[in-house]
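[SOLVED] Need 3D model of a two-part complex

Original post:
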Amino acid sequence: MKKLNQRAWLFVTPVLLLVAFNALIPMMTVVNYSVQETFGDNLFFWQGIDWFEQVLTSERFHKALGRQFLFTFLILIIEVPLGVAIALAMPRQGFWVPFCLVTMALPMLIPWNVVGAMWNIFTLPDIGLLGYFMNHTLGISYDMTQNPLAAWVTIVIMDVWHWTSLVVLLAYAGLVSIPNAYYQAAEIDGASNWAVFRYIQLPKMKTVLTIAILLRFMDSFNIYTEPFVLTGGGPGNSTTLLSIDLVKIALGQFDLGPAAAMSLIYFAITLLASWLFYTLMTMNDNKS
Amino acid sequence: MAQITLSNLRHSYRPDPAGDDDYALKKIDLTWEDGGAYALLGPSGCGKSTLLNIISGLLVPSEGKILFDDQDVTALPPAKRNIAQVFQFPVIYDTMTVYDNLAFPLRNRGRDEAIVKQRVTAIAEMLEVTGMLSTRASNLSPDNKQKISMGRGLVREDVNVVMFDEPLTVIDPHLKWKLRSKLKELHQRVRATMIYVTHDQTEALTFADQVVVMQDGEIVQIGTPVDLFERPAHTFVGHFIGSPGMNVLPCEVRGGAAFFGGEQVTLEGPSGIAGDGKAEVGIRPEFVSVSRTGGGIAAHVRKVADIGRHKVVEAIAHDSRIHAILEGDAPNAGDAVMLDFKQSQTRLYKDGWLASRPEGGAR
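Solution:
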């Protein structure tokens, strides 16, 4: 039998410490809060799973969760096909390649709160370019602060503007990695453009698209800054997404117990949904 | 099925070619007979892939015409030419089964599902992939993937030509042999014109009835494997085919006779050169005999390589290196020997091109 060598701990310990300090310990404080009640002065009372029950049965949470899913669904259904379409339309060689790539990358380089502020000003009915144009030139009533639909349209378009590029760049990377022989063979086989897309481009983009969808899912499900700056969750609660609601409960109402319970549920949903996405999308790969 | 004629073909990848150097294909006039097995042989970068892509329609030539029988197809896209091409790296449609892969070219042309089934089954049988028909193509090994690529090329029964662009590059050596003989067998069964591009002489010589040798965008020689071996039309062909290649020795021509280092070398026949001057003697290592005594050219042995079946002797005579292939006993390095050239295989080359003629034969 091999002699046990304990030296491996030396190599594992730094990582363990790092993970402990950046994930485990902060997380455990949240777990700690989620099962207790406090009235300040560092006094805590055991509360069991009461906060979890309260959150899970509250209508407010259900509505915020519903809005969150709707938002994520909308942006995925728009950004993924649009991103793929743009990637397909981009030149694959020549003078315009760097131009297209940089133009595409620009929105992603802008800080999130700046994006929110930009779109806020852009859509102001009296001075914003878009807001003024819609209200005064076209005569269409468009005011995010009054109309929930306008608010929704705006946050969705804002996210599409900000993040479609990520899908574009990933899909583009997948496309340029396809050897020319595939296109030539397809041409000789008499394949239509649709068949080329369906049987060559899409399969070759699958890996990167899986990553793109996962990233966009997680980011959009956890989105906070841009809608907070843009609408603050309004008008009313119409754009109060999960994260905005969470911050309201934790920092607005200072209900640390329910906020902690909600954080954990939020985290569990994100994790579960990501796992489901990934499993479903890679399921076919393992089939022979 | 058709006869393919290339007429006055030139191609340049530059928009404004100035001199001959700007052309990847200099001037190609060539006819591929219907049903022939051809190999296009040449070193990397000689223009053979360019020529292939022009025949398939993936490239439009700068000048010249391509005819399939009497129809001018120069401007037709690949799909309209009814040709098939197998690429260096296997191209398969990952998400489809082997069956669907083979059926793809037929289905794209709207063929009846019953015919598709019949053709796919027949081709699968020929390629010995029947057992894999329902497997996902992405799970196959490289050689099987390449078989499927070939199958897609052969599945249409009416193709004008099937082209292979170095199809065995990614295949393991022990499978290369199998696939190569498979191809030869397929050619005999389907009788389609096949053009096989390669830089590997063994592949070319085993596959083809006619080998087209290219160099620097030009066709140097067209002939059977035996022609290329015995009477290379150019010293390049002599070098390129054979292992080691033909010995090419500088010589002086005086009054119709060739002198190598002052010693007369008896040629196969008339020198074919009028007047005196510099030329080259070409003799294959297989036709050089080595003896310790006896007549011939004095030389000393520099090294002897035993390559199993035979020994390759490298000797130096008059500052030129001469290879000889010997069966059985061979001298040792450093020995002084006499080299004798087999007269009927001793050729004379002028400016690289074959000049001498066989005894009594017309040129």
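Edit: The first strand of chain B starts at residue 4 and ends at 11.
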